[in-house]
């Protein structure tokens, strides 16, 4: 399903003499440039997800089995997740005054085991993927898992861990006992990056998932963050009636032993529209002397733009790839809109896949 650019708003000739139309410059139909292109078109499915750590106590990963079966039938070549890449983590670590000292989890234990700092581990992982054999040995998988942990790519390390036979999920080949305990902990962590994306990637025989989140443009530079947060939260509180009803429906479905109906709901276009409106419209209309809610919207857009660019980068050298982007449901309307404007890209209808 292609997502076209919003058509420009027509302006009366008399008004053009006074001020330019808001959309006067958006007249080139970029969505038509790939008509008649040679080669296969990429198929991108954006799955809006709930954050599994918000589900009621007692969550059983088996509740995702029905969803996983439908996603496996889509047969993605690439799976992306909403977390920061090792490259972004390394950037933040080199600029703690700007991004904070705890921007990403520590890789100290993995560095001690492998002898690789984050840049070296990222380079080593990339080199391994390029020469990865069709039938890797358990030792190769253990070694790569350790390197990926040093590269701050925990979800991909877990993909390797899951593809080891149960008896081979042990220390060895630079994967020491502390790292084994970390991987075992990921198995019980309620996070869609592990319980959904990594499990799916391992099931399909993929070697990794791709981190596409980005927070480098939404860390708002204000004198005091507390009034900023208060202003944004006050704006959201002023327009959340429809969202509260939507969340009530989601909460009821989140207690089920099969979460497929929940995912059908959160990916429903009407529910996505409610999320998008509740997220942005009150902020745009808020009466804030410092314009803090408007700053938040700008940061939100920057984050989504950079995430979409990161998704695009994962299949830059793979025209015609089938891509699954797993992202918080509130991001999905922006992903669908902007990914659908890219050349040679078709956005797949999530509702059809989840039937």
From TrEMBL:
InterPro entries: DUF5694. Keywords: Signal. Residues 1-26 form the signal peptide. The keyword Signal applies. Pfam families: DUF5694 (PF18950). This is DUF5694 domain-containing protein. It comes from Pseudoduganella chitinolytica. The lineage of its organism: Bacteria, Pseudomonadati, Pseudomonadota, Betaproteobacteria, Burkholderiales.
């Amino acid at each position: 399903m292609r997502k076209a650019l919003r058509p420009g708003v027509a302006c009366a000739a008399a008004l053009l003499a006074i001020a330019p139309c808001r959309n006067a410059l958006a007249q080139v139909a970029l969505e038509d440039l790939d008509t008649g292109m040679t080669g296969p078109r990429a198929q991108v499915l954006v799955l809006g997800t709930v954050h599994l750590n918000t589900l009621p106590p007692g969550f059983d990963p088996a509740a995702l089995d029905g969803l996983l079966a439908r996603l496996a039938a889509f047969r993605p070549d690439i799976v992306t997740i909403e977390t920061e890449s090792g490259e972004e983590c390394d950037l933040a670590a080199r600029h703690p005054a700007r991004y904070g000292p705890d921007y990403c989890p520590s890789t100290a234990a993995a560095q001690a085991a492998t002898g690789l700092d984050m840049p070296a581990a990222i380079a080593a992982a990339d080199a391994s993927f390029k020469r990865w054999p069709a039938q890797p040995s358990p030792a190769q998988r253990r070694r790569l898992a350790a390197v990926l942990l040093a590269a701050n790519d925990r979800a991909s390390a877990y993909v390797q861990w899951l593809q080891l036979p149960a008896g081979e999920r042990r220390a060895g080949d630079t994967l020491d006992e502390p790292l084994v305990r970390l991987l075992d902990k990921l198995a019980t962590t309620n996070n869609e990056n592990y319980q959904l994306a990594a499990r799916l990637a391992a099931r399909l025989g993929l070697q990794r998932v791709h981190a596409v989140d980005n927070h480098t443009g939404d860390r708002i530079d204000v004198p005091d963050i507390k009034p900023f947060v208060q202003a944004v939260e006050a704006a959201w509180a002023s327009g959340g009636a429809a969202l509260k009803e939507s969340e009530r429906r989601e909460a009821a479905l989140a207690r089920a032993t099969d979460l497929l109906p929940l995912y059908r709901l959160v990916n429903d276009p009407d529910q996505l529209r409610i999320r998008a409106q509740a997220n942005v419209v009150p902020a745009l209309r808020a009466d804030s002397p410092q314009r803090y809610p408007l700053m938040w919207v700008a940061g939100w857009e920057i984050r989504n733009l950079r995430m979409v660019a990161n998704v695009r980068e994962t299949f830059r050298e793979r025209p015609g790839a089938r891509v699954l982007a797993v992202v918080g449901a509130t991001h999905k309307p922006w992903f669908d809109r902007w990914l659908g404007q890219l050349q040679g890209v078709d956005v797949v209808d999530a509702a059809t896949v989840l039937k």
